[in-house]
C-alpha cells in the first residue's frame, strides 16, 4: 500500500476502517448476551442502583466503536477541514 502524505483517504484506509467497524459490530451479540447476564445478576441482588447503568453498556460500546472509527479517519486524513 502506497503511503499518502497529502492526508487523503485511500481505498486501503477505507477498507481498514470498514473491517474495524464490521468486526466490532460482529462482536456486539456476544457483548449484549454478557450484558444481559450481568443485568440479570444485578436484578437478583439487593443493590438496585446498578441496573440502569448495566442496561446502557451496549450503547456505550456502539458509541465507542463509532468514536474509534471517526478518530481513525481523522488521524489518517490529518484532521478536520484541512485542504
Describe this structure in words.
- This protein is an all-alpha fold.
- The chain is 71% helix and 0% strand.
- The protein is built from 4 helices and no strands.
- Helix 1 packs antiparallel against helix 4 and helix 2 packs antiparallel against helix 4.
SSE layout and pairings?
Elements (H helix, E strand, L loop, with lengths): L10 H16 L1 H17 L6 H5 L1 H21 L6
Helix pairs in contact: 1-4, 2-4
Overall pLDDT = 79
> Major sheet, described briefly?
none
Low-confidence runs (pLDDT<50, min 5 residues)? Answer: none
Number of helices: 4
Cα shape: elongated
Strand percentage lies at under 5%
Rg (CA only): 18 Å
Fraction of residues in helix: over 70%
| Cα-to-Cα separation, first versus last residue | 22 Å
Class of secondary structure makeup: mainly alpha
Helix and strand element order = HHHH
By DSSP, the count of extended strands is 0
